[in-house]
Amino acid sequence: MSRAKFRELLLDMFTATDYRCLNCGRDVFDNLGFCPDCMKNVVFNNGKTCKRCGVALDTDEDYCGNCAFDKIYFDRAYSPFCYEGVIRKAVLDMKFNNLGANAKVLARYLVFEADRQKLEYDLVTYAPVSAKTLKTRRYNQAQLLARAFCDILNKTDLLAETVVKIRETSPQEKLSRSERKTNLVGSYRLHPLANVKNKRILLIDDVKTTGATINECAKVLKRHGAAQVTALTLASRKESLDYEISEE
Ligand SMILES: [Zn+2]
Ligand SMILES: [Zn+2]
């Protein structure tokens, strides 16, 4: 899809109001979240992608290394953006600089991607953070994104807490690639009040790096009878890029 077409669709979808650019703070007079200058540096995930997890691929393969070699529990994953440049900054601001309000703007792109991929789901949920993280950050950015997503679509009745993180894990950025994959194993449980049996679940998170977080959440959901788990993250990190971030 061309960028012009994308703009057109987004503008159709939302009423114009004034906002500030998520990257530079300049006033913007549409719903795109970024001023025209910063928008030039947004990297959309519109090229060749892994047929399972949706990460941008530079190779001729159909699947990325993770999906080719690991046990994957989610059915598909999609991201409108690559985790680079201004999107990376906007996501980190949302997560670490107390700018939870960014989630409301960025969630529009999740709506757009869900529409573009024609996603079908009976329940919308989000990747949890541990109690300790919630205490220091005071919010879970994935939950904010999921709530904003449902608000935009008038589907708040579909939003549910399904997975809880029961133990603190080492920050992913301090670990090697293989350690990252095992770090989260066994850290998640189904919420005692959640009912996911035979449900098609849309699992929202901010960023997918190795995919370990969404995979562990999907494992819990599938083991409790979920019919389908589709992950939707704002951005995904190309395999070759080695940014230092925490997946939580
Ligand atoms: Zn800007
Ligand atoms: Zn993949």
Explain what you see.
This protein folds into 2 domains: 1-41, no CATH class; 45-236, Rossmann fold. It is of the alpha/beta class and 248 residues long. The longest helix has 15 residues, at 102-116. The protein has helices spanning 3-13, 36-39, 65-69, 85-96, 102-116, 131-137, 141-152, 177-183, 212-223; strands spanning 19-20, 27-28, 76-78, 81-82, 123-126, 163-165, 188-190, 200-208, 228-236. The chain binds zinc ion (2 copies). The site of one zinc ion (ZN) has 8 residues, from helix 2.
Summary keywords:
disordered C terminus, two-stranded antiparallel ribbon, globular, Rossmann fold, 9 strands, 248 residues, 5-stranded parallel sheet, binds zinc ion, 9 helices, 2 domains, 34% helix, alpha/beta
Mean pLDDT across every amino acid position = 88
CATH topology of the largest domain: Rossmann fold
- The total strand number stands at 9
Q: Low-confidence spans: pLDDT under 50, at least 5 residues?
A: 241-248
Q: Helix and strand succession?
A: HEEHHEEHHEHHEHEEHE
- Number of contiguous helices: 9
Describe the sheet with the most strands: 5 strands, parallel
Q: Into how many domains do the coordinates divide?
A: 2
- Second-tier CATH architecture of the largest domain: 3-Layer(aba) Sandwich
What's the Cα radius of gyration?
A: 17 Å
Q: Give the overall form.
A: globular
Cα end-to-end separation: 31 Å
Given helix and strand content, the structural type is alpha/beta
